[in-house]
Amino acid sequence: MRKVKVLFLDRDGTINRDIGTYVTTREQFQLIEGTEAAIALARQAGYQIVIVTNQAGIAKGIVTSEQVEDIHRYLNELLAVSGAAFDRSYYCPTHPDYPNPEYDRFAWCRKPETGMVDRAVADYLASGFEVDRSQSFFIGDKTVDVECGLRAGLRSILVRTGHGEEELCRERGIEPEFVADNLFQAITEHILLNAC
């Protein structure tokens, strides 16, 4: 079975600007500078691009699944211009403080749980590809992203954009492989230099 290497990317604060609340419209969605170029370089190096994002605003009634999916369509439109479109996207609608029978069944997917990564790996397997975890990375701006990547057997990178929880990672003993100022630095100064 053919192996693939994957970049699992958090969304808000990693790809697009964290606006302090949930992104509900295309107008609120702004890419962080260098994102398109970074993802395009990763794709050229043979990486699959998978978005994994907690979207608890759905359980809170702030944003709908349809809005999240529309924003992902918009993101792919923006990325496609630079040859950087993503391959798959997954989002988790649940939040422990906002119980909702419609969404509670997805609790296993809320980062730092590995459910979204597990689903992506299973989906690749169903398509005839095995995700090479030793050459795959998880990049995000929060401790839960680093922890999710580590739990899933991936190489974790923390970016300082968004929440940039470098100190919190240290306090909790959750160590990323690399800390970068942004996604562009993570990809150009670490991933591409360490690719096999």
UniProtKB/TrEMBL annotation:
Q: Which catalytic residues are annotated?
A: D10, D12
Entry cofactors: Zn(2+); Mg(2+)
| Keywords, ordered alphabetically | Carbohydrate metabolism, Cytoplasm, Hydrolase, Magnesium, Metal-binding, Zinc
Q: Where does the chain bind Mg(2+)?
A: D10, D12, D141, K142
Residues the entry annotates as binding Zn(2+): C92, C109
Any one Gene Ontology molecular-function term assigned to this protein's record: phosphatase activity
Positions bound to substrate: 10-12, 18-22, 53-56, 110-111, 142
Which classification does the entry list for the species?
Bacteria, Pseudomonadati, Chlorobiota, Chlorobiia, Chlorobiales
Q: Which organism is it from?
A: Prosthecochloris marina
Q: Which GO cellular component term is one of those annotated?
A: cytoplasm
The protein, known as: D,D-heptose 1,7-bisphosphate phosphatase
Cell compartments where the protein resides = Cytoplasm
Protein family (similarity comment):
Belongs to the gmhB family.
**GO terms (BP aspect):** carbohydrate metabolic process
Check the record and name the Pfam families matching this protein.
Hydrolase_like
Q: Which InterPro entries match?
A: HAD-like_sf, HAD-SF_hydro_IIIA, HAD_sf, Heptose_bisP_phosphatase, Histidinol-phos
Q: Does the keyword Magnesium apply?
A: yes
Q: Site Stabilizes the phosphoryl group: give positions.
A: T53, K111
Q: Which positions carry the signal peptide feature in this UniProt record?
A: none
- Name the EC number(s): 3.1.3.-
Which residues carry the site feature described as Contributes to substrate recognition? R110
Q: Does the keyword Transcription apply?
A: no
Question: What domain of life does the UniProt record list for this protein's source?
Answer: Bacteria
